[in-house]
Amino acid sequence: MNGVIVIDKPGGLTSHDVVNRVRRILQEKSVGHLGTLDPMATGVLPLVTGRMTRLAQFYITSSKSYEGEIRFGFATTTYDADGDPLGDSSAFDFDIDRIREAALLFTGGLQQTPPPFSAKKIAGVPAYKLARKHKEVDLKPVAVEVKRFDILDFNDGRARFVCDVSSGTYVRSIAHDLGRQLGCGAHLSSLTRTASGEFFIKDAVTLDRLEDAARNDSLLELFVHPRRLLPDFPCVTADEESVGKIRHGRAVNLPELSRARQVKVFQGQAELIAIATRVAGTLFHPKVVLAEAAH
Predict the structure, then answer these.
(1) Which of 167, 214, 264, 283 has the greatest CB tally within 10 Å of its CB?
(2) Rounded Cα–Cα distance for residues 273 and 293 (Å)
(3) In Å, how far are 87, 94, 264, 269, 273 from 260, measured between CA atoms?
(4) Can you name the CATH fold of 3-62+198-224?
(5) How far apart are CA 90 and CA 186, in angstroms?
(6) Each residue's pLDDT tens digit, 16-71
(7) What is the pLDDT of residues 161-175, one digit of tens each?
(8) Do domains 3-62+198-224 and 66-158+168-188 have the same CATH topology?
(9) H helix runs in the chain, sequence order
(10) 232-289 belongs to which homologous superfamily?
(11) Handedness of CA 210, 212, 216, 218 (dihedral sign)
(12) Active site includes 84?
């Protein structure tokens, strides 16, 4: 089965756990995700299946949106609620205005150090494997962008927030660093991803609903329509001759899209057969072929 489906990931499962379960439900070996979520986190987890896994390369830099909660008073080893407390609880005496003031320091372009319990690699070894063995984890800061970080309310030592961030941003690092800035420690107590690229929480389906659809032979209605994918790429419906060439990886002329750099090529209204890149003028070469070659 070839397509893109947005799963509403439950808490307690890794992204890989979800991928494995979807493989079983769809009886499809080729399933991948478009951006991992920590086990504690819930929400939007887009999956690509079948030949659509070839589209993953175009989603590496997709921005993300989240809503969640930060608990103040102590930090944790993982920077979230799954970790062990780092030291005793600290008293604090500040209001929401002070938190909002501090939050401004974590917006815009930042140099962010990933959490020690993360998949970032050090000399080829994931950092979390070193951290679990209590070995030194020396991670270098990376450039990220926090486009929005709004504190919604603050009650009983917990602040609810929403944020929009670039790909590769660790929200739990923001929570940890905010607590350090305020001098009392903090960690991410809950997190829901509400958007990833063009995929939103309203598009997401639960694993239980996916299983029901598989039993009732109604899976197709849960998949994202191909014309909604990669909205920054123009669409073109190819004629029969061009479809034949594209299926064999050959370049085609697409005169109606002379100014586009990359385009989505369809056969009919719903079959996405390729992502093509402009070579020169109106000549496009299929960078990724999603259709099988005709025999």
Answers:
(1) 264
(2) 10
(3) 56, 52, 10, 20, 17
(4) Pseudouridine synthase (3.30.2350)
(5) 10
(6) 999 999 999 999 999 999 999 999 999 999 999 999 999 999 999 999 999 999 99
(7) 999 999 999 999 999
(8) yes
(9) 15-26, 96-103, 127-132, 171-182, 207-215, 240-247
(10) PUA domain (2.30.130.10)
(11) negative
(12) no
Q: Which CATH number fits domain 66-158+168-188: 3.30.2350.10, 3.60.130.10, 3.40.50.11270, 3.30.930.10?
A: 3.30.2350.10
pTM reported for the whole predicted model: 0.91
Q: Among the options 8, 17, 38, 203, which is catalytic?
A: 38
pLDDT tens-digit readout, 274-295: 999 998 888 899 999 998 765 4
Number of Cβ atoms within 10 Å of the Cβ of 289: 19
Q: What is the pLDDT of residues 69-116, one digit of tens each?
A: 999 999 999 999 988 898 888 888 899 999 999 999 999 999 998 887
Residue 212 has phi, psi (to 5 degrees) of: -60, -45
Sign of CA dihedral 207, 58, 145, 129: positive
Instruction: Write down the mean pLDDT value for the chain.
Output: 91
pLDDT of residue 295: 47
- 280-286 contacts: CB < 8 A, separation 24 or more? 282/253, 282/254, 282/255, 282/257, 282/258, 283/251, 283/252, 283/253, 284/251, 284/252, 284/253, 284/254, 284/257, 285/251, 286/246, 286/249, 286/250, 286/251, 286/252
What's the half-sphere exposure (Cβ side, CA atoms, 13 Å) at 10? 9
Q: Is 87 exposed, middle or buried (0-12, 13-18, 19+ CB in 10 A)?
A: exposed
